Amino acid sequence: MSTVAEPPVDPTTDPITDLDAHALSQAIHARTLSCREVMQAYLARIHRLNPRFAAIVNLAADDALLRQADECDAELAQGRSRGWMHGLPQAIKDTGHAVGFPTTFGSPLLKHAMPATDSVMTARMKAAGCIVLGKTNMPEFGLGSHTYNPLFGATGNAWDTAVSAGGSSGGAAVCLAQRLLPVADGSDFMGSLRNPAGWNHVFGMRPSQGRIPAWPKPELFVSQLGIEGPMARNVRDLAQLLSTQCGHDLRAPLSIAQCAQSFVPQGEPSVRGLRIGWLGDLAGHLAMEAGVLDVCERALQRLADAGAVVEPAALGFDADRVWQAWLLWRRALVAPAVAAALANGGTRDQIKPEALWEHDQAAGLSCTDFMQAAQVRSAFYAHLLGLFDRFDALALPVAQVWPFAMAQHWPKVVAGRAMDTYHRWMETTIYATFAGAPALSVPAGFDAGGRWPMGLQLIGKPQGDADLLRLAAGYEALIPELLRRRPPVPH
Fold first, then answer.
1. Does the first or last residue of the chain, that is N or C, have fewer Cβ atoms within 10 Å of its Cβ?
2. What is the domain extent for residue 138?
3. Is residue 362 part of a domain?
4. pLDDT band at 81 (very low <50, low <70, confident <90, very high)
C-alpha cells in the first residue's frame, strides 16, 4: 500500500483526484491507494477550491470523514468490500436525503430540516461503499437553471466563475469539472442534470421515468417529472453510477421493475448505422443564442463522419400546446412544496419570486385543467414513440443560451425575443421530461472565445437507457481531444 502521508499540493493537477471513479475504485481495491489517502486528497482540494465555487455545502468535519475512510481501509484489510464505491467520497444534491445532513433545498426556511432516513438513491450509493462528505449546492427550491440561494450563495461555473454554473444540479457539475468529487448525483425536472452538465463540460443523464425510485416523497403517483440521476466525467462512470442507483423499490410504486445488472456499455463503442434526428431549434420555435446550434451541429457531424445517419427532423407536434400543458404540470407539482414552506411559518418575503409565481399560478387550477393537460402529455408521448420508429435517438441543444452573468437571475431576452417566464429559455429540456424518456447531455464544444462549454442533448426511447448510453459511449470515443480540456483552476 502507498505510504503517502499528505495529499499533493499542485493546485492544477493531482494524481489521485485526476483519476476517474473506475480507476480510483480499482486502485483502492488493489490497495495501491488507501481510502484515507483518497479522502485526504479530496478534502485538500475541496478546502483549496470550494471557497471560490461554493459547490459543496454543509461539509462534514475532516476528522469524522477520515475515521470513515479508516474503517473502509480496515474492511479491505479483512478482505471485505462494500462495493465498487468503497471509500469514494460523494456529496448528495441538496434535494436528496442523507442522514446527518440537512435537506435544505437552498432555503433558509429548511436550514435545519434533518431527515430521519436516507433517500433510496443515497442508501444505494452508501451500500455500494461511498462516504457522504456533504451536499451539493442548488437554486432555492430547485427552480431556475442558475445555482444561487440565500442560504449558501451562488455557485460559479467551473470554467469561468463570472458566469452561471447552470442548475439545479449546478454544484454537482462544478464538483466534477473541478475534481472535487469522482462522480456526482443530481435530480432533473427541467434539465437540472443536463443543463449544468453541458455548461461545465461533463456528462449528465436524466434516466427514464421510474428508473431510479423516488422515495421518500409526500406524493408517489403523480409527481414523476422530477427524477434523480447520475453525473460523471465519462460514460463508463455515468453508467456504473446509474447501475447502482436504479432498481424497483416497493415504496416507489411506479419505479421500473426491470433493471439491467449493469448499464456499462460492453464491447468496442460504435455509432455506425445509428439513426439520429436533429430537432435543432424546432423550426424557429426555440429562441437560440448565436453559436449554440453551430457547436451542436459540429458535434453531430462527428457522429455522421463515424457512420451514424444524422438528418434533420421535425417535432411534428404543436410545440406551443406542449409548452402550455407543461406550464400547468410544472406549477401543479411545484406549488405544494412552496405551500408547505408557507404553512410551516414561512413568509412570502422569505421565498424567491419565481417560486411564489408557480405557487400563485396554481391557485386557480382545477382538476379538469390538470386532466386536459395530462391528455396533451399522453398524446405527445404517443407521438414521440412514432418518431422513435424512425430514429434511434433525437438530438437538441441542451441549453438555448451560453452561461450568463452571475448577477443575472435568468435571461430576459434570447436572440432578440423576450422570455415570458423565468424558465422559457430552458424550453429545450421539456420534451424528454414530459415523455418520461431518457436524455443525456454530452460535451459538444465551446463558444467562439473558447471560454464556455455547451452540451448536446441526446434523447432515447422510453426505457431505452442502455441503448442511449451505448450511443454516448460511441460519441465519447470520437472526442478524446475535446475531453482532455480542463477548466482553469483559481489560485
1. C
2. 21-483
3. yes
4. very high
| CATH number, domain with residue 183 | 3.90.1300.10
* Residue 126 annotated as catalytic: no
List 25, 34, 93, 187, catalytic entry: 93
Helix, strand, coil content of the chain in percent (nearest 5): 40, 15, 45
Q: Which residue in the list 107, 119, 164, 192 is annotated as catalytic?
A: 192
Helix spans in 31-78 (H): 35-53, 62-77
First to last CA, the chain: 32
Does residue 3 belong to any structural domain of this protein? no
Distance of CA 257 to the CA centre of its chain: 23
Q: Write down the catalytic residue from 34, 107, 164, 168.
A: 168
Residue 154 within a domain: yes
Instruction: State the total domains in the chain.
Output: 1
Q: Could you tell me if residue 14 is inside a domain?
A: no
Q: How far apart are the C-alpha atoms of 141 and 355, rounded to whole Å?
A: 7
pLDDT of res. 489: 84
Q: Is 164 a catalytic residue?
A: no
* Catalytic residue list contains 192: yes
Q: What is the pTM of this model?
A: 0.96
Residue written as cell 461533463? Answer: 202
